[in-house]
Amino acid sequence: MRPMRRALPLIAMALVLTGCALPINGAAPATIPSGTVLFKDDFASPSSGWDRTTYPEGTMDYDGGAYRIFVTALEANFWSAPHRQFGDARVEVDAGKLGGPDANRLGLICRADAKGYYFFIVTSDGFYGLGTFQDGTATLMGHTEMQSSGAIKTGAAINHLRMDCSGNRLSGFVNGKPVAEVQGATRTHGDVGVLAGTFDQPGVDIVFDNFAVLQP
């Protein structure tokens, strides 16, 4: 189990972003075959709709054909979304560390709105967590602490992350291997996106590429 000093703190998931609009323009009918691509972005165009913002706590922007989140504050998360809405969705991305500590957070979100989202995160030192952020509070689902997995490539290596949000079930995969699954999701739809954050060390610098949403 992840050491207590690295357990997911409630204040660490404080929502840094506000005002993510959620236009209903990406909902998928249930008749769409599993595996159908509903949305994808390789971040080649800086006008594809993701947030381009700088705060005292960090920056989110397109960078060299990818999407970069740099977090300088302690115990903080940044998340960004393409401003679309989906019900059931399989969300995938390639993510890796450009710089900063291995004790970081990087991952995916689904069913996001102004009050919160579901998340699947990994760290560059080999841990993962699946949970919910709601009204300012983060809660891991299925575990009380983040768990280790040999499926996660550590350090600056790129990991292919996948999060399935289907009905009341949430699942997390790393490099094609299932690592987490829980039931009990109550949100039914919302935006999707990427997340990066810090624990007790600043300077987390994460790059994302090949983002895709598929019918689960």
Q: Whole-Å distance between the termini?
A: 30 Å
How much is the radius of gyration in Å?
A: 15 Å
Query: In this structure, how is the largest beta sheet organized?
Result: 9 strands, antiparallel
CATH hierarchy class name: Mainly Beta
Give an account of the 3D structure.
With 216 residues, the protein is mostly beta strands. It has a single domain, classed as Exo-inulinase, domain 1 (Jelly Rolls), CATH 2.60.120.560. 0% of the residues lie in helices and 49% in strands. It has no helices and 16 strands. It has strands at 37-41, 53-55, 58-63, 66-71, 77-80, 89-99, 104-113, 116-122, 127-134, 137-140, 147-148, 159-166, 169-174, 177-183, 191-198, 204-214. Strands 1, 2, 3, 4, 6, 12, 13, 14 and 16 form a nine-stranded antiparallel sheet that branches. Strand 9 and strand 10 (137-140) form a beta hairpin.
Task: Looking at this protein, list some descriptive labels.
single chain; 216 residues; mainly beta; Jelly Rolls; 7-stranded antiparallel beta sheet; globular
Put the structure in a nutshell.
The chain has 216 residues and is mainly β. Helix content is 0%, strand content 49%.
Topology:
Elements: E1 37-41, E2 53-55, E3 58-63, E4 66-71, E5 77-80, E6 89-99, E7 104-113, E8 116-122, E9 127-134, E10 137-140, E11 147-148, E12 159-166, E13 169-174, E14 177-183, E15 191-198, E16 204-214
